[in-house]
Amino acid sequence: MPAFFRKKASHTDKILEEAKCATSHGGQLLVDAQAKDFGLWEKLAACQLIDPRKDNSRSFSPEAIIAQIVFSFCSGGTSLSDVGRLAADPILGKLLCMDRWAEETTIGNWLRAQNLHSLRAFWGVVLEFVAWALKKANPARVRRDGKLEVFFDDTQIEVEGR
Hints:
About 20% of the residues are buried. About 45% of the residues lie in helices and about 5% in strands. The chain has eight helices and four strands, in the order βααβααααααββ. It has helices spanning about 30-40, 40-45, 60-75, 80-85, 90-95, 105-110, 115-135, 140, and strands at about 5, 60, 145, 145-150. The radius of gyration is 18 Å and the shape is globular. The protein has one domain (about 5-150).
């Protein structure tokens, strides 16, 4: 078994025929397809600052860890233990071309190893994704009275007016 794990390119031409080959996370294929369309995994792989490993031939690549976090968030995950629990769904791993899932300790160590420079580099990719997504979106779906509308779904944040 290789000692280095990365997020591989996935293909969405899968057909599930048996109940033993099913996953409740099938919608993650759409998340992965959007990320692939944007080139997210390649952009993260090229972002050297977010990789704190001293030996890049070992452990999980940053794009594999970020992919796991994204897939967990998009399926309702709210904690590192939720991110680590994706390993309990081997079909999801096969569908998303993840050789292996990182444990929550590995993900926590990667997050703690980030610094101001790596966060700035990462946010550069995030901002590029947001600009790309807004460009692709129907303007009527994201604008109200010609202005960009931003909505945060949290009961602790209530905003009215300008």
